[in-house]
Structure to design on (358 residues):
């Protein structure tokens, strides 16, 4: 099974304020330059009817929702993470093995639990949905299939509050009519390239000569596209203890705009993060700073380092640079500060799995 929570950040906001439910709700990341600069993180389905979705610039979202009772809120990641953890805990109690892939997504292997029966898996999914709704108050969509690839596409096919079972004998029929961009790793450029070859659907991709695909996209990717289009995927559901990012956040003794005060705090956070980096034996390439302002809005700035590093000094330099710039651009006082690193690589780069490749 693949479980993906519906309109997650916005649903969390509805959970703590049910009065929002019937209104368009937009959760956004405010970049801080002007009141409306920034982008939509997600929106509830009421807002989506007006064409508002993840990634849309906020000023456009405001325009599309003009004249409605739309509510715009800043991202409160920590709150969403708490809710996410509660749900993940409930999900875990039902599985043979479990793999969380993002704040709102997890794969559940229930093969043993249902003795391989797809109908029993559907019943189990309904039970889990009811349990999570009852214990946490959140709804999600679930896809069930013979492997991760099919489960993921199935989950996306009936949002929101969906439950879709695709049995092994139905895989071909289910995948064939879908546009190629529904496959993981087929983005805008690849879609354009495939379309040029006359390949619009997953079915057409499955029928296309595999050797030609390899010539065009390289051996590894070509083979992946061919298999994916046929619904073939053998990746196990397995727990990964590798986070996608490491962050620490902390409240300042008092609100400030003083760089030195900010850096004193971030130095402690950096020390903590660096310990984690050493322990995990990883390098990072991206550094971000987070500032929670006195009006509780959250701002962040990030920077890609020239090369991956595990060095604390490099991290300190980047954080200093980011806060210097940020304080120059913003007028409000800061209440809490955070540091985040991401884009990890293991010391010996291993790329066992294509999903991690994408
Ligand atoms: N998110 C984001 N920016 C994006 C995409 C997503 O900040 N461009 C965040 C907000 C989402 C959360 O990640 O709530 C989960 O992403 P999903 O793609 O699962 O989207 P939603 O859960 O919001 O909606 P859906 O009902 O389509 O799953
Ligand atoms: Mg979701
Ligand atoms: Mg998701």
């Amino acid at each position: 099974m693949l479980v993906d929570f519906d309109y997650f950040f916005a649903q969390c906001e509805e959970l703590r304020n049910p009065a929002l439910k019937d209104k368009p709700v937009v959760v956004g990341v405010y970049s801080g330059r002007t009141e409306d600069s920034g982008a939509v993180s997600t929106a509830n389905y009421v807002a989506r009817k007006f064409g508002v979705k993840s990634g849309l610039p906020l000023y456009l979202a405001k325009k599309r929702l003009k004249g409605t009772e739309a509510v715009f809120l800043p991202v409160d990641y920590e709150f969403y993470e708490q809710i996410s953890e509660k749900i993940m805990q409930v999900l875990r109690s039902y599985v043979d093995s479990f793999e969380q892939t993002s704040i709102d997504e997890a794969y559940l292997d229930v093969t043993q639990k249902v003795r391989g029966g797809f109908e029993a898996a559907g019943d189990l999914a309904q039970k889990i949905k009811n349990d999570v709704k009852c214990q946490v108050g959140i709804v999600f969509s679930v896809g069930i299939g013979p492997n991760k690839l099919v489960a993921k596409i199935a989950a996306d096919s009936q949002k929101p509050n969906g439950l879709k079972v695709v049995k092994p004998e139905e895989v071909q029929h289910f995948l064939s009519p879908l546009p190629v961009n529904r496959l993981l790793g087929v983005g805008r450029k690849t879609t354009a390239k495939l379309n040029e070859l006359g390949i619009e659907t997953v079915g057409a991709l499955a029928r296309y000569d595999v050797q030609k695909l390899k010539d065009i996209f390289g051996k590894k990717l070509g083979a992946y596209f061919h298999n994916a289009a046929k619904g073939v995927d053998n990746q196990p559901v397995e727990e990964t203890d590798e986070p996608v990012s490491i962050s620490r956040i902390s409240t300042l003794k008092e609100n400030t705009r003083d760089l030195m005060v900010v850096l004193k705090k971030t130095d402690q956070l950096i020390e903590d993060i660096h310990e984690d980096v050493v322990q995990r034996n990883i390098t990072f390439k991206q550094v971000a700073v987070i500032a929670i302002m006195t009006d509780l809005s959250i701002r962040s700035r990030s920077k890609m380092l020239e090369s991956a590093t595990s060095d604390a000094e490099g991290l300190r330099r980047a954080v200093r640079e980011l806060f210097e710039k940020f304080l120059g651009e913003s007028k409000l006082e800061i209440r809490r500060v955070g540091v985040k690193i991401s884009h990890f690589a293991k010391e010996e780069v291993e790329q066992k799995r294509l999903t991690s490749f994408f």
